[in-house]
From TrEMBL:
Its EC number is 1.11.1.7. Ca(2+) 2 binds at residues 200, 251, 254, 259. Removal of H(2)O(2), oxidation of toxic reductants, biosynthesis and degradation of lignin, suberization, auxin catabolism, response to environmental stresses such as wounding, pathogen attack and oxidative stress. These functions might be dependent on each isozyme/isoform in each plant tissue. It comes from Rhamnella rubrinervis. The active site is at 69 (proton acceptor). Pfam families: peroxidase. Heme b binds at residue 199. Binds 1 heme b (iron(II)-protoporphyrin IX) group per subunit. Binds 2 calcium ions per subunit. One of its GO terms (cellular component) is extracellular region. This is Peroxidase. Disulfide bonds join 38-121, 71-76, 127-327, 206-238.
C-alpha cells in the first residue's frame, strides 16, 4: 500500500509540474483565433508589412527586435510600443530600448491602421498579435521560414522603464548569463541559440562592441576570439572617436538575408558581440552552432519552434489586458 501511494504521489507531482510549465494564458493562444471576427487579418497585416518592407529593409531587423524586446520584459503584450506620457517613462525610453529603430514601431502602427480600416475588424485585433504576425512576415520577406502564428494575446495595461531592468540580454553576456535569462522565459539553450540568429540581419552601433577591439582587457586590447582580419575591418568602420550614429551590419556576409550564415560566421570568429561569439567558443553550445552552420533546414525548424515558444511568454488575457485603439497609448 505504501509503495502504491508513493507511486501515485510521484505521478501526481510530475503531472502538476508539467501543468505548471504551460500557463493558462498561453494555452488560449491558437491559430485562426480571429476566424469569426477578422477573417482576413493575416493577409491585411502581410500586405501592410510588405509595403513597409519595400520602402526600407530596416523594417526587417527593427520589427524582429521589437518583438524580442517586448516579449522579454512583460511578456508579448505590445507594452514596448507605448509612448511615455505624463509622469510615466515607458519601456521604449529605457536605455536598453533606445536603439530600437523607429521602423519597427511604424510597421506595427501602419498594420494596425490597415486592420482597423476594415469595419468588421475595427478594434478587434490586438497590437500584440499584430506585432507577432508582422515579425513572422518580415522574417519570411527576408528569406527566412514562414510559420503559423498563434494568436489571442491582449495588449498590456502598463509600461514602465523600470520594468526593463535586467530583462534583456546584453552584448557582453557569456553562455551562463544567456541561458539564465532565456530560462527565466521558459526557453532552453537550444531555443536561445536559434533565436540569436536574428543577428543575421540588422545593424549595431559601434559603442555596443568597441570594447572588444580597443579595450578588451589590461593584457589584451583585442578580444582574441575575433577574426584578426575582421578586427581591422571593424576598426576602419569604428575608429575610437566615432560618430555615435554610425552603424554597421551585424552579419558581414549576408546582412539582408535571414539565413544560417550567422552560424558560419561564428565558426570564422565573425560574431560581432561577445554574446554571439560565445556560442562557438563555449564547448557546450558549439555542437549546435556547427550543426546549424551545416544544415539550413535544421536551423529553420529549431527557429520556428523557439519563436513560437517566445510568443507564448507572459500572454495577457481576461482582465489583464485589452485591445488598444492606438498601439502607442493606453485606452
Amino acid at each position: 500500500m505504501g509503495k502504491f501511494m508513493s507511486r501515485q504521489l510521484l505521478v501526481w507531482s510530475l503531472s502538476l509540474s508539467l501543468c505548471l510549465l504551460v500557463s493558462p494564458s498561453a494555452a488560449q493562444l491558437k491559430q485562426n483565433f480571429y476566424a469569426n471576427t477578422c477573417r482576413d487579418v493575416e493577409s491585411i497585416v502581410r500586405n501592410a508589412v510588405k509595403a513597409k518592407f519595400q520602402q526600407t529593409f530596416v523594417t526587417v531587423p527593427a520589427t524582429i527586435r521589437l518583438f524580442f524586446h517586448d516579449c522579454f520584459v512583460q511578456g508579448c503584450d505590445a507594452s514596448v510600443i507605448v509612448a511615455s506620457s505624463g509622469g510615466n517613462t515607458a519601456e521604449k525610453d529605457h536605455p536598453d530600448n533606445l536603439s530600437l529603430a523607429g521602423d519597427g514601431f511604424d510597421t506595427v502602427i501602419k498594420a494596425k491602421a490597415a486592420v482597423d480600416a476594415v469595419p468588421s475588424c475595427k478594434n478587434k485585433v490586438s497590437c500584440a498579435d499584430i506585432l507577432a504576425l508582422a515579425t513572422r512576415d518580415v522574417i519570411a520577406l527576408s528569406g527566412g521560414p514562414s510559420y503559423a502564428v498563434e494568436l489571442g494575446r491582449l495588449d498590456g495595461l502598463s509600461s514602465t522603464s523600470a520594468s526593463v531592468n535586467g530583462k534583456l540580454p546584453q552584448p557582453s553576456f557569456n553562455l551562463n548569463q544567456l541561458n539564465s535569462l532565456f530560462a527565466a522565459n521558459g526557453l532552453t539553450q537550444t531555443d536561445m541559440i536559434a533565436l540569436s540568429a536574428a543577428h543575421t540581419v540588422g545593424f549595431s552601433h559601434c559603442s555596443r562592441f568597441a570594447n572588444r577591439i580597443y579595450n578588451f582587457s589590461p593584457g589584451n586590447k583585442v578580444d582574441p576570439t575575433i577574426n584578426k582580419t575582421y578586427v581591422g575591418q571593424l576598426k576602419s568602420m569604428c575608429p575610437k572617436k566615432v560618430d555615435p550614429n554610425i552603424a554597421i551590419d551585424m552579419d558581414p556576409n549576408t546582412p539582408r538575408q535571414f539565413d544560417n550564415m550567422y552560424y558560419k560566421n561564428l565558426q570564422q570568429g565573425l560574431g560581432l558581440f561577445t554574446s554571439d561569439q560565445t556560442l562557438f567558443t563555449d564547448t557546450r553550445s558549439r555542437p549546435t552552432v556547427d550543426a546549424w552552420a551545416t544544415s539550413s533546414s535544421a536551423f529553420q525548424k529549431a527557429f520556428v519552434t523557439a519563436i513560437t515558444k517566445l510568443g507564448r511568454v507572459g500572454v495577457k488575457t481576461g482582465g489583464n489586458g485589452n485591445i488598444r485603439r492606438d498601439c502607442s497609448a493606453f485606452n
